[in-house]
């Protein structure tokens, strides 16, 4: 349920109600439009994606803690106000990333440089609590979710211990639940492709959260593969993260979100140069990403990012790109439906809700598939459709193929 932007008053009292807490991923998944997230750097300037999306993560949007709270007593709310107002106008659920530390509050101004010097420094607890309180009091009715920190397992973004991050998480959780009881508290995200950093940080962070009785509503990863990695590598990371959560004793009722994902980004190391992924492969990989969420148990993903010609990422997403077409297509296939997915030589998602459909794809060698009895049309992730006959054997490769009676509208 959307929550409307309220008057910008720091002392605003938040009224409980509205948005329900995030539901866990299950074998039969109800797919919400909010499960299709984007990063939109230009959101405060009114940038409007041309694809249907349901949620936004405010990161790289000019509204970080250091940008907003420019000194202990000086707040510049204009950018955040504009970003949240625009996202609400676009009917997107909003997630704010609460960290990282402003330069003025940094105990070590050489700890990290993005989005400002000292950003990776551990903030003073009183300063942190005051910041979280200010955000929640001002925006609580407009924000669906609060993420504690970005990529806390990397010294680029956080140079404290897993226990210190858990302390920040618990403190924020208490404040958020006091002033915005329906707000979803998302754990600090952790990257996966630097396995040493993941293994060093994430299990200890979870162990500390367990001792605090799990002061989060959702867990978070960033599943970028190495630059040459494929959706199949991402799938292996998801399985690893779910295994880590299970080993830590994390409650199965708390879902897993992937709060940043793209492919082809340079690194780790010189042996993994930047890779451009274009054309039908880009559309296929974007669609596969959100299909794998349903198959593997990720409730929500935020694609990084909606911006024209960004040199960092391998799959571009802006008006007219193949990546945008893949995003729009898979959203049409899945949003407001229920899915039940299986893994095999050909992965399959059975779709119900509006009318029956199946999506099939292979992340390995091409495999055999039989057109379902109800299907008269086959459409791929680029939006191209052809007629098919029920019971016909077909070969399925890396391009996801939708089978049904009409294309979703």
Protein model, in words:
28% of the residues lie in helices and 20% in strands. α6 packs parallel to α7 (279-296) and α7 runs parallel beside α8 (322-334). By secondary structure, it is an alpha/beta fold. The protein has helices at 65-68, 78-89, 125-139, 162-179, 195-211, 231-248, 279-296, 322-334, and strands at 29-31, 36-38, 55-58, 69-71, 74-75, 93-97, 145-147, 184-186, 190-191, 219-222, 256-261, 298-303, 337-342, 347-352, 357-361, 367-370, 377-380, 385-387, 393-396, 401-404. It has 2 domains: 29-335, TIM Barrel; 347-404. The longest helix is centred in the middle third of the chain and has 18 residues, at 162-179. It has a 9-stranded parallel sheet, covered by helices on one side. A 7-stranded antiparallel sheet has the order 1-13-14-15-20-17-18, with helices on one face. Strands 4-5 form a two-stranded antiparallel sheet. It has 8 helices and 20 strands.
CATH fold-level topology of the largest domain: TIM Barrel
- The CATH architecture of the largest domain can be named as Alpha-Beta Barrel
- The whole-angstrom Rg is 21 Å
Shape: globular
Q: Average pLDDT value? A: 93
Q: How many distinct helices?
A: 8
Strand order of the largest sheet: 8-7-6-3-2-12-11-10-9
Q: How far is the first residue's CA from the last residue's CA?
A: 22 Å
Helix content: 25-40%
Gist of the model:
With 409 residues, the protein is α/β, with parallel strands linked by helices.
Helix and strand layout, with pairings?
Layout: E1 29-31, E2 36-38, E3 55-58, H1 65-68, E4 69-71, E5 74-75, H2 78-89, E6 93-97, H3 125-139, E7 145-147, H4 162-179, E8 184-186, E9 190-191, H5 195-211, E10 219-222, H6 231-248, E11 256-261, H7 279-296, E12 298-303, H8 322-334, E13 337-342, E14 347-352, E15 357-361, E16 367-370, E17 377-380, E18 385-387, E19 393-396, E20 401-404
Parallel strand pairs: 2-3, 2-12, 3-6, 6-7, 7-8, 9-10, 10-11, 11-12
Antiparallel strand pairs: 1-13, 4-5, 13-14, 14-15, 15-20, 16-19, 17-18, 17-20
Helix pairs in contact: 3-4, 4-5, 6-7, 7-8
């Amino acid at each position: 349920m959307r929550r409307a932007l309220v008057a910008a008053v720091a002392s605003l009292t938040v009224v409980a109600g509205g948005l329900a807490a995030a539901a866990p991923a299950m074998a039969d998944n109800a797919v919400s439009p909010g499960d299709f997230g984007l990063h939109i750097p230009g959101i405060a300037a009114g940038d409007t994606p041309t694809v249907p999306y349901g949620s936004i993560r405010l990161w790289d949007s000019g509204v970080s803690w250091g940008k907003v709270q420019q000194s202990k007593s000086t707040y510049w709310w204009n950018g955040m106000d504009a970003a949240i107002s625009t996202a609400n106008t676009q009917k997107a659920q909003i997630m704010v990333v609460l960290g990282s530390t402003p330069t003025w509050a940094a105990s070590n101004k050489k700890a990290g440089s993005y989005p400002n010097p000292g950003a990776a420094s551990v903030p003073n607890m009183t300063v942190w609590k005051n910041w979280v309180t200010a955000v929640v009091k001002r925006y609580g009715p407009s924000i669906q979710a609060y993420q504690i920190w970005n990529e806390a397992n990397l010294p680029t973004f956080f140079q404290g211990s897993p226990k210190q991050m858990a302390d920040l998480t618990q403190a924020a959780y208490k404040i958020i639940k006091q002033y915005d009881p329906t707000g979803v508290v998302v754990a600090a995200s952790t990257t996966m492709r630097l396995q040493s950093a993941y293994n060093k940080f994430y299990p200890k962070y979870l162990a500390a959260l367990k001792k605090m009785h799990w002061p989060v509503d959702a867990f978070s990863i960033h599943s970028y593969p190495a630059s040459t990695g494929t959706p199949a590598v991402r799938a292996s990371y998801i399985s690893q993260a779910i295994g880590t959560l299970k080993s830590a004793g994390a409650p199965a009722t708390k879902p897993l979100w992937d709060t940043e994902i793209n492919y082809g980004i340079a690194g780790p190391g010189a042996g993994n140069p930047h890779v451009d992924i274009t054309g039908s492969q880009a559309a296929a990989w974007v669609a596969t990403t959100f299909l794998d969420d349903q198959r593997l148990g990720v409730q929500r993903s935020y694609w990084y990012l909606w911006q024209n010609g960004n040199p960092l990422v391998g799959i571009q997403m802006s008006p007219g790109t193949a990546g945008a077409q893949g995003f729009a297509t898979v959203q049409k296939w899945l949003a407001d439906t229920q899915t039940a997915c299986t893994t095999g030589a050909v992965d399959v998602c059975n779709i119900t809700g509006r009318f029956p459909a199946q999506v099939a794809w292979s992340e390995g060698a091409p495999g055999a598939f039989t057109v379902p009895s109800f299907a008269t049309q086959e459409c791929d992730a680029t939006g191209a459709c052809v007629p098919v006959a029920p019971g016909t054997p077909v070969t399925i490769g890396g391009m996801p193929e939708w089978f049904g009676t009409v294309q979703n509208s």
